[in-house]
C-alpha cells in the first residue's frame, strides 16, 4: 500500500507545479517499483504457504492484487510504446504546421524543443494516423472559432492566447495547455482557423512537453477534438 501515497504525491505535486517533470518521473518510478516488489513478495509468500502451510495467505493475496492493479498503469504504457509510433508532436498539416507562440515561454528550458517534423517523423505520422488531416467546414471562420473555443473550455484546457477573427484579420487562433489524466503532464495545443474560398480550414497541433514518447495521446487528442467539432458544426452551412 506504500506505493499508493507515493504515486498520489507524484500526481498532486506535478499538477500543483511543486515538482518538475524529471522529479515526477523519478517519484513515479519509485511508486511502481514498490508495487513490483509487493508482487514479488506475494508470490514468494505463496510459495512458502504452499510448502509448509504457514499463515498469511490473505495478506499475500491482498498485496498481489493491489500490486497488479497498480502495475496495470505502466503495463498499458508499455503496450502503447509498442503500438504507437515514437512521436511527441503531432499535427494535421505536416507541410505548414501551426506555430506555437505563447507556449514557447511556458515550456521552459527542460521541455522538448519545438520544430518542424523531419521527413522520418512525417512518414511515421502519415503511416500511423492517416486520418489526421486539415478539416474544411462550409461556415465562416468566426463561427468555427466560437465553437472551437467552447470545446477548449469544455475540456478544461488552460487558454494561453486567442485571436478571434475580425474585419482586419479573418483568421482565428487558439493556444492552450492540456494535461494528461493521472499525473498531469502538460501538452501544448494550437488550433489554426483560416478562411478558404467556400468556408474555413482548420488545423491542429498537439505537442508533449516532456518524455520521448507521447503514447498516442497527441493524436487521440486531435482526433477527439475534431470529432466534437464535426458534431458541433454538423448541418451548418452558407457561411453561418
Question: How do you describe this structure in short?
Answer:
The protein is α+β, with helices and mostly antiparallel strands and 240 residues long.
Kindly provide the radius of gyration, computed on alpha-carbon positions and rounded to a whole number of angstroms.
23 Å
Oligomer: single chain
**Strand percentage:** 15-25%
How many domains make up the coordinates? 2
Output the CATH homologous superfamily of the largest domain: Kinase associated domain 1, KA1
Q: Major β-sheet, in short? A: 6 strands, antiparallel
Count all strands and give the number: 6
- Segments where pLDDT lies below 50 for 5+ residues? none
The sequence of SSEs as H and E is: HHHEHHEHEEEEH
What distinguishing features does this structure have?
alpha+beta, TATA-Binding Protein, 2 domains, 7 helices
3D architecture notes:
It is a single chain. The chain is an alpha+beta fold and 240 residues long. The protein has two domains: 3-83, no CATH class; 89-233, 2-Layer Sandwich (TATA-Binding Protein), CATH 3.30.310.80. It is 50% helix and 17% strand. The chain is built from seven helices and six strands, in the order αααβααβαββββα. β5 and β6 (199-208) form a beta hairpin. 30% of the residues are buried. The model has no long low-confidence stretch (mean pLDDT 91).
